[in-house]
Design goal:
By secondary structure, this protein is mostly beta strands. 0% of the residues lie in helices and 17% in strands. The protein is rod-shaped and about 80 Å long. It comes from Eudyptula minor (Little blue penguin).
Length: 150
């Protein structure tokens, strides 16, 4: 499995070696490879959802996406800024994103979230109810004839 670039050998993990190559090429940022003998860049595996691959030549993902962010396949940052090429972004309002999130999760009934980049939603205040995917509890006062604890 060891490769000596002066004598040649199998293409090492984290790389690919097209026909006629003299030096292994690194798998691109946003991908990785834990296998020998890759011969084209498409042999490198796209970083999976919820993880990021921050540099070229990786043999495994760099780690899980940070809490408060989500990472789509091929993400290269643990905290993507939300632009298309970054493949992910900050968690939006009315959603939550624990560490390793692959897509924003809607706040569950009984919770709300009026902020971005949150790992969890807030509990609905006493005297109010919060349906799923709620941004603010104040728009849903408890109706007459019912009681709504926190």
């Amino acid at each position: 499995g060891a490769t000596n670039t002066s004598t040649g050998g199998p293409c090492p993990p984290g790389h690919f070696c097209p026909a006629g190559t003299s030096i292994p090429q690194q798998c691109p940022m946003g991908t990785y490879s834990d296998r020998l003998y890759n011969w084209q860049d498409s042999s490198c595996t796209v970083c999976p959802s919820g993880y990021y691959c921050s540099s070229a030549g990786l043999t495994a993902p760099s780690g899980p996406c940070l809490a408060g962010y989500y990472c789509l396949p091929g993400a290269s940052s643990p905290s993507p800024p939300g632009e298309l090429h970054w493949k992910g972004g900050p968690c939006p309002v009315s959603h939550f994103c624990p560490e390793g999130t692959s897509f924003p999760l809607p706040c569950l009934a009984g919770t709300y979230n009026n902020l971005t980049r949150q790992a969890a939603c807030f509990p609905c205040a006493a005297g109010y109810y919060c349906p799923e995917n709620t941004t603010s509890y104040s728009t849903n006062p408890c109706p007459a004839g019912f009681y709504c604890p926190k």
